[in-house]
Amino acid sequence: MECPRPEWKQRRETNTCYWFEDGDRLPQYKADERCRRYDGKLVKIDDAEECDWINGNVIPDLSSQIGGGNGRSFYMGLKRDGADQWRWELDNTIISWPGNWDAGEPNNHRNKENCVIIYESTGKWNDVMCGDSFHYVCEYQIPPQ
Ligand SMILES: [Ca+2]
Ligand SMILES: [Ca+2]
Q1: Secondary structure (DSSP) of 37-72
Q2: pLDDT digits 0-9 by tens, 11-48
Q3: 9-141 belongs to which CATH class?
Q4: Cα of 75 vs its chain's centroid, Å
Q5: Ligand 2 midpoint to CA 29 (Å)
Q6: What are the extents of the domains in the chain?
Q7: Whole-number Å distance between alpha carbons of 26 and 136
Q8: Which ligand is nearest to the CA of 49?
């Protein structure tokens, strides 16, 4: 059971793989296309436990590679829907936990912020304009054998 590429990080308890893509910055829909290329999707952070795992395991590794966290931000697969609810693109479900929003977020600045990024420095979330370009996080579920 393997992740799509060696640089993806595997969470063994759930056989889930994560990839913090820190080369390109892309608008959200293009980031999603890029994840699909590897049979993945932009990450769905199902609960506080998964959030803690990502913040505790993936983000520190990433930061150490470049000698410490900086101002990078990463798209996840959460979007505001027409009814002003936060919905996961991976399975079209509404978020079922409070999330890990930064202080004062989501603020929907100018009523135009329908996508969500993770700050590398803190793991906190912010709603942003989907057309703005950021790095991104893909998730891939290894199929049961
Ligand atoms: Ca997940
Ligand atoms: Ca915001």
Answers
A1: HTT-EE----SHHHHHHIIIIIHHHHHHHTTS--S-
A2: 999 999 999 888 889 999 999 999 999 999 999 999 99
A3: alpha beta
A4: 5
A5: 18
A6: 9-141
A7: 8
A8: 1
